[in-house]
Amino acid sequence: MKQWIEKYLRYLKIEKNASVHTITSYRTDLNQFLNFTAVEQQVNPHQTEITSIDRLQIRLWLGALSEDGLARNSIARKVACVRSFFKYAFTRGAITKNPAHLLIVPKPEKRLPKTVQLEEIRRMMEMADGDDPKTVQDRAILELFYCTGMRLSELTELDIRDLNLSGRQVIVHGKGNKQRIIPLGDEALKACKIHLNSREELFSSRTDADSRKALFLAPKGQRIYPKRVQLIVKEYLMKTSEVTQKSPHVLRHSFATHMLDAGADIRIIKEFLGHANLSATQIYTHTSVDRLKQVYKKAHPRAQNKSE
Question: pTM score, two decimals?
């Protein structure tokens, strides 16, 4: 089975043009499933035959994940991964019967996105207002996240050539390597210009050819990596915001919610975020409705019983 997992992952990379993040997640999920079935069959994972897998083993694995308290959204992703893998194996003749064919994907939980308040955004940017190259880069990262709503993986993959300062826009390479162009506001544009002026000061002996193309760099002079960006964002949000989720994704949520609150068309926000379907963007309408209700309750004289 191990060799079929590797073949499937190569298929995702070459034929489906899947992102590095997707391939990494699917590799983790499939190896996790392989190890589980190996324990069930009392064999070494490398000895597990793909033809020995049946629907019951898949259901037992999903049941174990649920008992371990894994979130429904995570289980849904793992189900989608296993279904896709066995469909690939079936169409390639590795198995004569698809054990995941009738597997039901759990409905994902509808959780409203957490957002950072406008005043907190202002304080965060002020805190990243410094002259040293590291702080200058931090400010550019924060401004780009909030100005464009791009994903973490999209930011770490940015090259200098993706920035068009004269055109006031940035080219983002999204899921499936689909490109989209996002305009840059004044603050993000200014932050990027300042960063470019001091960027080479972040170079080191470890700065290779790819790093010299990268827009953002890690402390050792190589292309910045997701974990480093997450730490940067968390550091600033810890000091300036009470939002419970202190991650790059919360800045993406804030971008979309604040745009919608200011009257932007949800279809335009969909294009900015790089969503394939409008349904993925519509969760932000719920956030705005909740905010409208709060404002109404506070402002309207007959919204609530004053004697309460």
Answer: 0.68
